[in-house]
Design brief:
CATH topology: Alpha-Beta Plaits
Number of strands: 7
Strand content: 35-45%
Distance between the termini: 32 Å
Number of domains: 1
Helix content: 10-25%
Oligomer: single chain
CATH architecture: 2-Layer Sandwich
Radius of gyration: 13 Å
Order of helices and strands: EEEHEEHEE
Strand order of the largest sheet: 6-3-5-4-7
Structural class: alpha+beta
Number of helices: 2
CATH class: Alpha Beta
Shape: globular
Amino acid sequence: MQIKNGQNVIYLHSSRNMTTVEIIVSGRVQGVWFRKYSKQKADEIGVCGHVQNMVNGKVKIVAQGGEDQIDQLVAWAKIGSPKSSVESVEVQPIRKELDFEDFRIIKA
């Protein structure tokens, strides 16, 4: 559900009927604004969760949303930010119940 608050759109999520996945993106994905663009895309399509750099040079996205929203984020991750070069995208479902309020960038 979304609520318009002035010019902002606020998404209200419940973990019920939501899909939660872990997306691991490898390639040239650090130092190329991948996390910033991930957040922009997640906010645009109403996905909650977080994105963070991993010590092995990959980026991890934990995303929660409707199936179509998750599909859109995965499709975007395969392309990535303008300066990135994505080699692979691995998607795994997360079975435990998580409840996110928004989408955040986790700083290293």
